[in-house]
Design a protein that fits this description.
Length: about 325
């Protein structure tokens, strides 16, 4: 079975029987769709489009976004788009692919000392993921550097797969949060993979001095709540972690990288068709100098989370701090 068939089947299995929260058209969360899947590398096998996992930086002149797309062949690749205002985007095409992998996706890009480092999920077989690294001088041409974080030892919380990294460079150190799991729910349509009645995702934490060699923290996992596809940012004296859900974007906060307190919904679904089945792979873009705060999400247009577009919500400074001070 190809990866796309497995992923769709698992998504259907996991969300079967769940009831979505009612949404009102009066919701204040008004997202704007900025990119929809198109072309051979974004249309997905169902030909309705499937793009996701945006990561955005401002390089002093333009906004640059790296994001994942599922092609008609079922394989995932990472593409790039650029924007002058953060709202109108021009595609620059595929920048990272791997003919030996089923899945190359979920980019997290850090710019340090004139070099871009892209941490991303890579899968060679089925749903067994690990985190790879690629480097670039211009953000367009990337050189693969191999595995940054592999699955953990047998029996540990992340022994099956790790992926969807979020990396920041803070106080001269690289810090990575990522999701992992050791099994799938019983009855999931997978073969040769551990299953359990208590299956869930958790979040791990690792650090690096050079961005290449990583050390897992001995207290892993640092967060549970079945959190996945996380995005971590530092805001003044605390960290905020966003994570995906069928109700919208959820969040947790921490003051020390390790001890996280779940805070519930950060931004709910909009109440429109664009994200009616939830927010996947959320990203909080912060530029204090420009006083620009934007929430990018993979807006789920299908219950199976395989028909997605990229949408954005502007958040003003007061609104952001009201959310964080709830």
């Amino acid at each position: 079975m190809r990866r796309i068939d497995i992923v769709v089947a698992i998504a259907i299995f996991i969300v079967a029987g769940l009831t979505n929260a009612d949404c009102s058209d009066e919701s204040s969360s008004q997202f704007t769709a900025i990119l929809k899947g198109e072309g051979d590398f974004e249309r997905a096998p169902h030909n309705r489009g499937n793009i996701y996992a945006p990561d955005v930086i401002w390089n002093g002149a333009i906004f640059r976004m790296w994001y994942g797309g599922q092609g008609e062949d079922g394989h995932d690749r990472i593409s790039c788009a650029e924007s002058a205002d953060g709202q109108n985007w021009v595609r620059k095409g595929v920048v990272l692919k791997d003919g030996l992998a089923n899945h190359v996706n979920d980019p997290s890009v850090v710019a340090v000392n004139w070099t871009y480092l892209m941490y991303h999920t890579r899968t060679e077989k089925d749903v067994i993921d690990w985190i790879d690294l690629a480097v670039s001088r211009d953000g367009q041409k990337w050189e693969l550097k191999g595995c940054a974080i592999a699955a953990g030892p047998d029996g540990t919380w992340d022994s099956l797969s790790v992926g969807r990294p979020s990396v920041i460079f803070h106080d001269g150190q690289f810090k990575m949060w990522y999701d992992g799991r050791k099994d799938f729910p019983r009855g999931a349509p997978v073969k040769g993979i551990p299953t359990s009645s208590t299956s869930c995702r958790s979040v791990g934490y690792a650090t690096s001095e050079d961005g290449f060699r990583w050390v897992r923290h001995h207290e892993n996992p640092v967060f549970g709540h079945d959190a996945g596809a996380i995005d971590v940012k530092r805001l003044q004296d605390q960290f905020i972690m966003l994570y995906e859900s069928r109700d919208g974007t959820r969040y947790a906060i921490s003051t020390d990288d390790l001890k996280w307190s779940d805070q519930g919904i950060f931004v709910e679904k909009s109440g429109s068709s664009i994200d009616q089945f939830g927010h996947v792979t959320p990203l909080l873009f912060i530029d204090h100098e420009k006083k620009l705060y934007q929430l990018f999400v993979e807006a789920a247009g299908a219950t199976t989370w395989n028909h997605n577009s990229i949408a954005v919500l502007k958040i003003d400074n007061d609104q952001l701090w009201r959310i964080l001070s709830r």
